[in-house]
Records
---
Amino acid sequence: MSSKPGFWRKCRIAFRCCRIATLLAVLALVCAVIWFNRVGLPDFLKRPLVQTLREHGVELEFSRLRLRISRGLVADNVRIGLPLTTNSPVLTSLEIQLQLNLPALLRRQLQMDGLVLHQGRFVLPVSPTNSLTLTNIQAELRFQTNDTWSLDNFNADFAGAKISLNGDIAHAPELRRWEWFRPMKPGGEPSHWQEELKKISDALDRIHFSGTPHLTLAVNGDARDMKTFDLRLNAQIPGAATPWGDLRNGTLTVQAKPQDDHTLPVLTVRLVAGQSITPWGTVRRETLVIRTAASPVTQPPPAVLHLEAADAETRWGGARGIQLDASLTAPADMPTKFDATLAWWTNAQPYQLAWMARLADWKSENISASAVACGGFWQSPELAVTNLSAKLGGGALAATALLNVATRELVFTSASDFDPHTVAALLTEKTRERLYEFSWTQPPELRANGSLVLPVWTNRQPDWRDEVQQTIRLNGELAFTNASVLGAKIDSAHTHFSYSNLVWNLPDLSIAQARTKLELNGGEEDATKKYEWHIRGAFDPESARPFLTASNAVRGFSRLKFTEPVILDADVTGRLYDYYSMAASGHLSWTNFSYRGQSADSVVGGFFYTNRVLEFLNPRLRRAGGAQTLTADAVVLDFNTRLISFTNGFSTAAPMAVVSAIGPNTAKLIEPYEFLQPPVARVNGCVPLRDVNGGHDLDDADMKFEILQGVPFRWTKLETTNILGTIHWKGQMLILTNVTAKIYGGDGSGFANFDFRPKHKGADYQFAVTVTNVDLHLLAAGLTTATNRLEGVLDGVVTVTNASTENLQSWNGYGRAHLRDGMLWDVAIFGIFSPVLNAVSPGLGNSRAKEAAAKFSITNGVIATDSLEIRSMMTRLEYAGTVDLKGSLHATVTAQPLRDVWVIGPLVSPFIWPITKVFEYKVTGTLKNPKSEPVLFPTKLLMMPLHPIRSFESLLPTNDESSPGPTNAPPVK
């Protein structure tokens, strides 16, 4: 009975003790929790935790490690990074929540499941003064087997953008071995990655976003091998302003995908933008894809680029439907030593590049094209354009090119059939001016290939003409149809061409234009501008009309009429733009043409032209159906002195046709001297190659015209049926020598000089004429249109020492005349005694004159004689007096009947002398209407029965002064 209370008492005491202990334990636990929350865990608890984190590859430094009721262990003011370094990557956080594995902890095992970061900050130094920084980091990091880190719900701010990150990284502690996370050595050279990261950091500092970009990043891989990483980045960029341009409504996708063969991951960058604005232009609705290998080493990885854009506007022009594909590689055996003479090419020397670009349309201020395509490659030392094609100017262009940057030699080929005017704005001003002289209805076809050597790359101001032009080599072919050059139509043209050593060569140029069909071969030297051509074929002079700009040439060409082309075979040499240097030689023939209305059937001969002197060698001209010809050893046209000269010329052509071709004024000067039939003549000398107006226009003339076969000739009223002689045109003098002629049934000879130097119109002249056996009847018929019954044979000499074509009263000279067996009484002045003598004895006044003779002088156009005698069988008439060239008379005539009767006359004449005074008359008036009256008054009374009415009239006073005697007549002896 007494033991029971003790047992229960003990039980109560034990319970009380347990309760107290529990309360004390709870109190201690509460105190510990409060301590752990406020003060933090003691070091003996922190050390195993830090060690556990270090085993997971996390170097965790913090100010305290506290216990939060709701969140567990939380480290405040955390720093994660390599210990004792200030230039290595570091992550700081306001607090990090440590996630312990509770089941393992209950088994007295300390195991960390992960970390939760709040308000973190990550700094990656890229230089002593610059770094890449992520702020406001919120993230969950879970530790899994194989040292795998799983990152969930990672959010941060980076360079004005929002970043979301998740992924799994196996063997994550190996990240500390990556070059990225190695600390920078003080004073040491930065690594390749540090240099690249510094470039990225510098670039990010210059980028400004409009709106907040959102970046989503997923990363998976094994830290022991970068090649295993799979990275996916997606960025939404409302807008960004960068040093390289502005971006609107952009989406950036980056993916790094590991390869099965453990090669470097393939990095694909895809940018889709609504608009990109760069210093070079604006691109709209573009898609840019870059595919390359991610590599942490210095060797650049291979890359492939693909660009598509709806349209683009640049300062050079606008394009539509843009596509660009390119690939860039850097071979392992790329050169490491670069040639300094390659200048900026050394930057591209390590790489290999291939590309293909396409444009649906290209438009600029200077050129427009469609379906543009260009492909090529770069592999040091060669840059190649394997194909360049475009549609433009109503045709197309296709070209290739290969540049060796080591030798600087550029080799190219091209084929085109577009209108060159389309690219005129790309040419030099002088070339454009030349090009504008051409037009086409169908573009020309051009095929060319060649090469040239470019200037040294280090020469920033090369002399292209001296350094490059002499290295150009060209070969090609050009053809076009339906073209126009300076308004001249060209039906077709075709040639092959070559260019080397500054020399152009066109071996087979053919040109067709209506009736012009020419074949040319030759070339031109750029250095000296010398050219040399051989031309053969038919040339229509009308083709040259549009090329004539000088007024003299246009005027001269307008006088030329032609129906057939010129047949040419010629060699031409000279210097470009130096027309005085041109020389030509060859052979030509031409038919059916005229100049100044003077036609020619044909002309053939050789020619030579130099120094503006054209020489025809052995020319032969035919006209009038071949009846008239002109030949010569040489005919020279000197355009410097404007003279045409003949050497040993032979002519059967009408002289008036020749001088009319020279000019109407020249023809007017020669017009009084008319050949009624073309003479056969030899021509030597020169005359002006222009129309002349007299005076000094004639100074350079020196022409001899020798008539070899007589032809009819007329000068004023004088005609000859057959004239021979020499005409010498010397300056302002026209000299006729050795002139012989058949004239009015007789013969004539003489000479004449015509002087055109006086200032009046026409010429001063002198001449001497000797005639024999001239038929008086024919002479009178030639000098007047009136009918006559004159007869006789006339001999005589007339010498005019000075005269002018402007005034007949200017004649001065002398002469003599002799007539045989003549009938002169139809001449009024000679028939004044015929009625009287016929009244004495029928027929006495009209008897045939056996002889008539006279000597005379000419002074101021007045012919004076004191010895004119007319002898007939029954009477002799003696005249003394004057007559001017207008016909005015002032003379005395005496009739001596029976003076020349045979035997009787000499015997009776002394006895009948007083009777002769009855027949002494004074004659006035004109040759056509002479007036006569006796000298003695008794004679009038004796003659009244014979002429009663006339005698009565003569006795009456009269005031008729219409025909006075010559006022300038010499006194009658």
---
Amino acid sequence: MPKLPTCVQCGTALPTDAPKGLCPTCLARTGLQWALSASSAPPSADPAQVSIAPPKPPRPNRTVRYFGDYELLEEIAQGGMGVVYKARQLTVNRLVALKMIRPGELISPSAVQRFRNETEAAARLDHPNIVPIYEVGDHDGSPYFSMRLFEAGNLAQALGDRLWPLRPTAELMLKAARAVHYAHQHGILHRDLKPANLLLDARGDPHVTDFGLAKLTEKDVTLTQSQMILGTPAYMAPEQAAGQAKQLTTAADVYGLGAILYRMLTGQPPFDGDNQMELLRRVQEEDPVRPDQLNSKVDRDLQTICLKCLEKAPDRRYSSAEAMAEDLAHWLAGEPIAARPVSARERFWRWCRRKPVVAGLIGTVLIISVAGSGGVLWQWRQAKLNEKAARTEAVKSQQVAEFLKIMLNSVGPSVAMGRDTRLLKEILDLTAQRIDTELSTQPEVEADLRLVMAQTYDELGRHAQAESMARRTLQLRQALLGQEHRDVAIALDALGNVLESKGDWLEAEARHREALAIFKKLRGNEHPDVAKSLSNLAHVLLARGEFAEAEAKEREALAMRRKFLGQEHPDVALSLNNLAELVKVRGDLAGAEALYREQLVIQKKCFGQNHPSVASCLNNLGNLLKARRDLTGAEALHREALKIKKKVFGEEHPRVADTLSNLGAVLFDKGDYDDAERLYVEALAMRRKLLNDQHPDITLSFSQLAVLKAARGEYAAAEENFREVVSRQRKSQDRLQLADSLYNLGRVLASRGNFAAAETTLQEALQIRLAKLGPGHARTQESMSVLARLYLSTRRYANAEPLLRDVLHFSGQASPTPSPSSLETTALLGECLARQGKYAEAEPLLRQGLTDYQQKQPNTSLAFSTQSLLGWSLLGQQKFDDAEPLLLKAYEGLKRRDAERPSRSHQLLIKEAGERIIQLYEMWGKPDQAAEWRQKLR
């Protein structure tokens, strides 16, 4: 077959090995987007493994206002030296906000420097609540950058003249504060925080923007003398108002956040004035009116947070924006805040600095008073110690410890049912402080109490304390009872469970194996104790990806529990849950769903409707429905689970974060990216606060956010995040999670046109999935399919062919009814063979593919493209009469489709289909028709 002599996009001469008729420039620009655009990879059961859809190519231009690669639609903001347009980026067909220097400012070097300063500051930040930069460039000597478009406007516009409710205000400012803290961690001070510089998305979440006055601390980028008090005086820190630009620290931005909070609480900024000089003076010298005097609904704690940010002295404000965010989080959770209002003592101390003589006299009186009080306290403490010494009998200690065990078991999170657990945490911590001394003579009692405390701490998500208690329990019992005792095995299993919660799966597995060996030696091969230890071991093996051994042990435990405990016991339900997880991994979604539903019936009978075990089952069943593409059902289950978990565990807990993450994944699959991102970010923040930095759940959160960025077409940011995820997962023990991340990273690399790196990455993902899941698993076939598409796009048909044959073979084995992915694979294999000149072998595959498409997906680009390929395979066999109607119908069908949904990739298909018609008439000996079609294509 003759090769195309020129690039199908730009018409330049092609090198001999140019893939798909594209010159190197066009290939680098378009990446693999058109090659993957028809992909319909099988749905994934894993929330971190979502197919990345490329952005759609642009429609024909409807206006004539252009700026480089951007179609300018309307001006949406202006101020200072910049102007912002709503624009369409043509190469990726997405709406963006395009910021450029106003033409009248081009002659000002300072304006250009401030603009470039903003560009550099914003482009280096990657945070969900900071406006992301898409592209930075220079067009005809005018610098610009494009960023995400927020059509909901900014906070100043949303506020207007009204007050916001307190809770939404705190939630918004918490997110803004954490975004500002992130900028500080990356060496950037904003220096112009105000409501107009917080853009709002559709959910009302804030996104920090306008870094025009930002300071890059490590470069000491400062403004000129004439610019030192640039900014917005009403929201400006006193030191900034005084012109101390070079001395500004992160405290200046903390002040700006407090000023925004003040505006939201009171309806006005902290200060106003008749002119700028008067306003600057008031900012430096006066205290703001207390918010509760302007809005009686403002409570004491929220007012304290606000006023601490607005302290005149930088060192009296919050030490960081994160510290402010932490207090807002405490306020939202109904917990005590760290900041304290200026007390009478503090006011008195400030007065003392103005009245040193009087203060000295008062100080003398206070010293005498304190000394006298100290003597009384000492005598009281001695009396209490004597009383304690008289009551150290062993029986009393044991009774007290037994009472504490009963109390802890009675008010733990599993049975608290929404009551505030802060008291429980305080009791635990106080008991932990006293247990070493007050039970030191009763090691058996101490061990029993520590075991209960370890389990309670673990349930509360306080894993470090739980581990400490569990290890001490084991030490005490081993010293008292030896190495082979039932209580020692129980302690080993408890420690294994805590270690699994922490993500330390290797030691958890070792501890569970030790416990199982002891139980079997003491109880034989069949006993409830043995079943429990088997199930514990199976659960950690599941987490480690050792699925075959895990399933065998869980089935053994389930049979044993049913034999000894009956059909409706909580331990039977636990085994059903673990077994369902393993069955799901094997790809048997229907079997997994049946097990989950059986488990749910048992748990509701045992515990009622509102119990954490019921919530966990709802969560797992929701993940299963998501894998089966029942997104509406999955969302409902996750929301029900979230409600129960928040009621039982409170607003912040690792299990709450799990459900937030899973609910976000469902919303992502539904296309609700903003809500999904909000939940992902909330889950990540919670996990980073509660778990160690290397915990697998934190890595999962990073992975989910990376997938979301890729789905939005933010490939550079997605690549960076996926590389971080892969780096973290190479240190972990879960090879399948690593394979999922490698797969997603490979697709991103392909979309960016980095085919060599994409191939290496996708191959590694495929090898892991082959080893762990086998060739017949849907995720393995997914890897094969995407790697085959990569080979097809680079004209390496011999590499693609065996992969496509394997996908077709195993997908046919899995189900007698062809799936959409297997239909597409049939057509792709036919195309692969035809492009290698194997026309006779390709013909039946293309006929089958065309028949399937016409039945299930008629009048689609895939159907018409397959029809053209079938005609081409007949042409290659010189079956001209059969080829002609197919080629003509395919061309006309593609043309009609293009009129409905024009795109660049579709134009390529039309061009190729037309050239096949020219080739038909040339080979058939009909030069007039060939010339006519050549003219028609031209």
---
Amino acid sequence: MIGETVLHYKILEKLGEGGMGEVFKAQDTKLDRFVALKFLPADLTSSEDDKARFIQEAKAASAMNHPNVCTIYDIQEFENHLFIVMEFVDGKTLKDKRDSLSEKQILEIGIQVAEGLAAAHERGIVHRDIKPENIMVRKDGISQIMDFGLAKLHSSSEGSRLTKAGTTMGTMGYMSPEQIQGLDVDHRSDIFSLGVVLYEMFAGESPFRGMHETAIMYEVVNVEAPPISTVKEGIDPQLDEIILECLEKEKDERCQSAKELAKDLRKIKKSTGHRKSRVYKVSNAQSQTGSASHPKSSGAITIQAFNKTIELNKVISSVYFLWPLIGILLLAVIYLLVVKGPSKQNSITSVTTIESPPDIIFSGGIVPQANFEISHDGKTIVFIGADSAGSNELWIRHLNSEFAKPLKGTDNAFYPFWSYDDKSIGYFVPGKLMKIDLNTGLSTEISQAKNGRGGNWNQNNEIVFAPDGVGGLYLVSSKGGAAKEIIKADPSHPNESLRFPFFLPDGKHFLYSIEKDYIGATPGDVVKIGSIDSRIDKVILSASTNAQYAGGYIFFTRQSALLYQKFDLSDYELQGDINFIARNINYDITKIKASFSVSPEGNLVYQHSSRNNEVFVLMNSKGGQTELPVFPNKMTMGGFSFVAASLSPDLGKVLYTAQEGQSENTEVWEYDFKTKTKNKITFGGELTSTPYWSPDGKSIAFKSGRDIYIKNADGSGNMQLVYKCDSAYYKKVDDWSSDGNELLINDILPNNGTELVIINVKNKSIDRSFTAETPEFNLVNGKFSKDMKWLLYSTDKSGTAQLYVKSLNKNSAIWQIPTNGGIKGWWINNDKDIIYMTRSGDVYVVSVNQSDNNLVLGSPRFLFSLQSQKLSQLVDVSKDGTLLLCTRSLGNVKVSPLTYVQNWKGLINEGNK
């Protein structure tokens, strides 16, 4: 269009483009002035109603006359394309200028933008797309808000809502929670967006850091923004508070007026010139992000002696001050050393992050969490490193080095722990307890351990360890030999597990955890004191956690927060208050183990939780996809990681399980496709999984703890026990019969095989069960046919996963679906077809013809591969086959780095002041 004349506007150059159109610089040949023309996308004004609505809103915006708002001169149409004629602003966008702005300049821009918004809000106009690209900073220093032509008229003289219902405008990362959820927006939505802009300007990064649009959406709606002070030192606390108030999730909790926001920012700006200089100490980690931080060097001259600091900042302006000053400093140091004496702490607390080696992630393999330990001298960490193929081995890294090295011959290792002299490392592999000598690199077997749950090594070269997921603790020499059980599990609780022992300084007594039930965290879990001679067995803490001791304190977790409490070794009693170190600690709920490790020499390592990298995607029969801002929990069964979720019969909702905030347990939630809202259904307080809708959509079935329950689908009423499970082994709900009378349960047997069990909902009893011909094989992912004549399931009895159909009548006829690798299938179209997924991610459909007790299966027809659609799993399929619920990986979401605290005692001393 460059060089063309549109009406009486000569197009001179293109200024930019985006989702809301293209912008050109033009000359108004009538009035002889420069203007900016914005041509709108055709879909924005696709109908006459859309045009009328837009023109009405733009007219209201054009009526504004404010120095901080870019003026709209006209709205025109040319060859069926609407365009806006705006004031041409000679300057740069805030996005282009933000790296060169001072604190005062940012404050001034914020004040002007807030004042411009206040003028718009007074006229009932909401901008809806405040972002750095829409804020222009002119050469004379005046800031102007652009693109008010796309604003929303919130009220009018007619009292009608002019913006089309359900329309969502805005830019990801700057939209308010209500915008993202498709809810009603008002002027407070702009205040939220401006809060994001100000946060970015001062912190240098966004408050919502998701690596994918859906991840950002989730954070905006659910995750509180961390204070700016946690990512940048020296921020004015009042300014931090003002910006965080703009970012409140609930509109009513947010700053209520752009005019008041401008006033508050102006006060901060006035105070910056008179503010006294501040010296910032190392954070004690009690921030919303749960991570401690330390100040960067500011160029100040400091002398530190025994944790005391003398700071001189730009005081020396002449060499004549140098020698007298050095003399004063030396006298001060002598005074600290001789007169005052050394303090209790002889080092400075620092907090740093440790990244994993290139192309390696922390943890992985059989046990995905909590796979690192710091040495007793606090100088080295051992961790599990996994490569892109999933292979994992032990790695070590000296904390004064930037490099880590693998320990060869330690494939499939998990739960490593150090020898007392830090010269060897004990670890588990499937079936064994091992050790590796760091000098020779030689790995040797110490003892049999079916499925290890932690060990610890004392100064007498004895190891206390848990050899299995259920049962007691054993003692063995580090040289090997017969292992002796020293503490037995409670015989009245056959599924009790003693795990994660940790020696106290005497090398005789130790902490250990009790997981009361195989299912994971329960209210009965405790931490105890035991001894190698079994003379003491005392509960010291009620919590589902591992625990460690160092320097007079016990470290443990609750609700994913890392805590500490004073511990008296003379009577093994906790004393004083529980104190906080960090929140959002990586936590394995099934093993009740958190990711932290503390050394007696004063160093601490912990790891924050990594974001779930799976999100739901709805695919229709034509291949169209809709991504949902829902992050389901992954589960593992039969060596296969999967997401369990269920589409409602009316296809308006999905059931899934997720954790709420810092809760250690999962609950059942529903997501409503129409209202785009999430609702919590269960409140059981235990590990809850595999929810499934009743055929009428009025009830849900799910597993909570070890048992099977049903509940009203609207969340009302109490959970009703349907089936009480005697074994500790994992169960999941696979299906609910079309008549509502029977549930199909998948049950892992003690011999590690699985069976399918049909439960009568009314009688709360087993009707019948089905097992593989050979018990160690698996029957999984069962589905009833609608007419209840057939059972579809997958089994690995042939050596690879394969789908079969079995008659539910008295005869035992079985039909095999010929495609290899079938792991999960669904009956669709009134039992006329079966759609299924293979382990490789291919999706097929096969026709079904039935007569009496006979079944004829057609040839499988390939539909698509999940990989080609950028999907990871097929989770559920509607009964008519028109809607597929899938998951998508958000890409290589980075596993959280390790946080290394040098001199954790400094944090404790600071916290105890």
